[in-house]
Amino acid sequence: MIDHSDRLRSRREGIYQGIGGLDLYYQSWHPEGKVRAILAIVHGLGGHSNHYSNLVQHLIPKEYAVYSLDLRGHGRSPGQRGYIKAWSEFRQDLGAFLQLIQTQEPGCPVFLLGHSLGAVIVLDYILRYPQQAATLQGAIALAPTLGKVGVSPIRVLIGKMLSRVWPRFTLNTGIDISAASRDQQILAAYAQDTLRHTRGTARLATEFFATVDWINAHAGDWQLPLLILHGGADRVALPEGSDIFYQQVNCTDKLRIEYPGAYHEIQSDLNYREVMADLEGWLEQHLSSEVVQLERGSAELEFPNS
């Protein structure tokens, strides 16, 4: 594990308004000097914005700022644990979060990263709002839950049956915590994490599966640079799901890396340094391409007849 003490002094936290006026929590970390780019993170089911310290510690010295929110019903944000009325709440909350970032860091390139359920939120947002997504530099999906998931079929069936008549009905997801990471220190920290929860409601279940179906049906419309990172031994979000989606994406600027033996919390697994290096390389490649485009644009403005 990385020593976090020296580089978290630039941490900030705040509240922003999601859909319906709900006050949602977020936090951010900044380098001491110039910010070259921003990584905005959307966590998974039951998680929260504290789960990505390895990303923060790796990217801050590279002059990236990192923003991370707590979804409604998660972490420090209000709302029934694991409940939404409709998936559009997640989508619009994310849109408001990105507006906040662009207001605080005007003109700075933004990459959007989603993990697990958060990756589904990110992919849905980008496909639903292509004009707004065009302002992003690229998207990263960590262990996206796009296929079979590690929840028992009985729990899924109960959720579907009760969604209309009792949408707030709550069940434990039953996901085995040992499937998160091969790092025993990470598992011990998760077990003691009071902000983490393992709850899912009937309405969330039906909205989730409907959204995954819609994403897969519209994968061919994808236009943004895309990076997918997935553990080959992920039992929570089976890697076959992200591979099927990846193959359906027609955009040529795409990359999928599968790590043999890695588990679901790929940013906190035993091979996290390899994951961080691959992520940084992809970010740098797409940041460099933006700089080249800006320089070319400036040259064309300065010498329009050349």
Descriptive account of the structure:
- It is a single chain.
- The chain has helices at residues 53-59, 87-104, 117-128, 130-133, 153-162, 184-192, 202-217, 239-248, 272-302, and strands at 12-17, 23-29, 37-42, 64-69, 110-115, 138-142, 170-172, 199-201, 226-231, 254-259.
- With 306 residues, the protein is an alpha/beta fold.
- Strands 1-2-4-3-5-6-9-10 form an 8-stranded mixed beta sheet, with helices on both faces. Strands 7-8 form a two-stranded antiparallel sheet.
- It has one domain (5-150, 207-302): 3-Layer(aba) Sandwich (Rossmann fold), CATH 3.40.50.1820.
- The chain starts with 11 loop residues before the first strand and ends with a helix.
- Helices cover 38% and strands 18% of the residues.
Series of H and E elements = EEEHEHEHHEHEHEHEHEH
CATH superfamily: Alpha/Beta hydrolase fold, catalytic domain
- Total domains, how many? 1
| Main beta-sheet strand count, sense and barrel state | 8 strands, mixed
Shape: globular
Percent range of helical residues: 25-40%
